[in-house]
Every structure is written in structure tokens, then in C-alpha cells.
Design goal:
Elements: H1 2-5, H2 17-43, E1 46-48, E2 51-53, H3 58-89, H4 94-116, H5 123-144, H6 146-155, H7 160-163
Antiparallel strand pairs: 1-2
Helix pairs in contact: 2-3, 2-5, 3-4, 4-5
């Protein structure tokens, strides 16, 4: 496999513009829909005759979040054949890539569990496990991208070329 990849230029691992935009847009929309649900669920519930009543937009924000999760899964799948495969073969940013994949798998599994297996006994802690990890996803994604890493290294006063 390495011999086959050796003739490919180094910039192939970098996502093309359309894919960078798709990743950014899909992840941003998913994250914002999750934050919208959190705000609606925890801060905008109203008091009804029989206890707290969810905001009328809460179920719609959750449905939108589920739809956007499917779109993000499609976008993630588009990264496997070239970006992930070549980066893995060249041993480039494996730790950051594995962290991204692990966090995404965790969010998919906890989201699936919330949708299909949640009950009164586990919904609260399962939900927290999902959204606490989801809130941190933009930081992990930003740390994974080369441009963000360069900026972070520069702020720390470290040389980018020696840290690769």
C-alpha cells in the first residue's frame, strides 16, 4: 500500500474546498441545533398545570438535530476513502484523527441510545454524556485542522515544523 501512495502529492490529504465547506457547514449546523435544544430544554421550559412543560420548539429542534446528524454521517463517510485512508497510510495526525473518530462514534452511539433505548431511569445521564461531549466537538475539530494547529503552536511559541 505504501508503494502505491508514494507517488501521490502531499496535498491530497488536505480536503478540497467543497469538502471543507461541507464539513464546516454540517458540523456547525449540527452543533447549533444541539445548543438550541439545550437552551429550549433547560432554560425555556414553562410551568404548566401539571409541572414543567417543554417549549413548543423543543421537539422540532430535536428532530432537526437528528436530521443534521444523518447529514454529518454522510459527510464523515465522504472523508473515509481519501482523507482518512491517505492520512492513516502516511501516519499523519493519527492521534487527532483517532480522537475525532472516537468522539464522533461516541456521539453517534449515545444519540442512538437516546433515541431508541432511553427511559426514565437512564435518559438524564445518557443525555448529559451526549451533550457534554457534543459541546466540546468544535474545539476538537479546530485542533484537528492544520491551520488551527499552526495558530495554536504559534501562540504557544512552538515551531510548527518541528512539532509534526
Amino acid at each position: 500500500m505504501k508503494g502505491r501512495l508514494s507517488g501521490v502529492s502531499r496535498c491530497v490529504i488536505r480536503l478540497p474546498a467543497w469538502q471543507r465547506k461541507a464539513v464546516s457547514l454540517a458540523f456547525s449546523a449540527l452543533w447549533l441545533s444541539g445548543v438550541a435544544w439545550l437552551l429550549l430544554h433547560y432554560y425555556l421550559a414553562t410551568e404548566g398545570d401539571f409541572g414543567p412543560r417543554p417549549h413548543w420548539l423543543e421537539p422540532w429542534s430535536l428532530r432537526l438535530h437528528g436530521l443534521l446528524a444523518m447529514i454529518v454521517l454522510t459527510v464523515l463517510g465522504s472523508l473515509v476513502p481519501v482523507h482518512m485512508k491517505l492520512a492513516w497510510a502516511r501516519a499523519r495526525n493519527r492521534a487527532g484523527g483517532l480522537l475525532m473518530v472516537a468522539v464522533c462514534v461516541w456521539l453517534v452511539l449515545t444519540g442512538y441510545a437516546l433515541w431508541y433505548f432511553a427511559n426514565e431511569a437512564n435518559q438524564d445521564w445518557l443525555s448529559r454524556l451526549h451533550w457534554l461531549c457534543g459541546l466540546g466537538l468544535p474545539l476538537i475539530l479546530a485542533a484537528h485542522t492544520p491551520v488551527s494547529r499552526r495558530r495554536m503552536m504559534a501562540r504557544l511559541g512552538l515551531n510548527w515544523s518541528s512539532a509534526r
